[in-house]
Amino acid sequence: MNHKKMEDALYSFAQGYNCSQAVVSTYAEDLGLDGETAKKLSSCFGGGMRMGATCGALSGALMVLGLSKGFSEFSPEQKASIELHCKSYISRWKEVIGNTDCREILGIDVTDPLLRQKAKDEGVFDMHCPNCIETAVRLLEEVIG
Predict the structure, then answer these.
(1) CA 93 from chain center: how many Å?
(2) How far apart are CA 49 and CA 27, in angstroms?
(3) pTM (predicted TM-score)
(4) Integer Cα distance of 79 and 14 in angstroms
(5) Which of 22, 91, 118, 138 is most solvent-facing, going by the fewest CB within 10 Å?
(6) What is the mean pLDDT of residues 111-126?
């Protein structure tokens, strides 16, 4: 387990970056991206794309997985390979976290500003998001090392 990556991702989140940015920027250099580009690329994915949909930490991890194991020149074999990696990663995520959707993980509707603020005040994000970020990094380390 790469504890430095875990620490870097959690530090980014604590600095105010969203969960997706925290995951993607942690792997940026390894993937040939600069940190600024990684943060911009992943900036719309926090909070389940700001709609409570797929968790941003999971989306960020899948971006990292795609950059690491994905393809740019089409072949049926490469397409099948990344599909297998993706499905396997999501399956492991569900085993650990239990759900892929931000609203279900947090137990709130993140699109409602009042509920979002209440959750922030009550520490809901601090209770759940770091665990999702840690899980994203730990599972990535298992797959891409």
Answers:
(1) 10
(2) 20
(3) 0.95
(4) 36
(5) 91
(6) 95
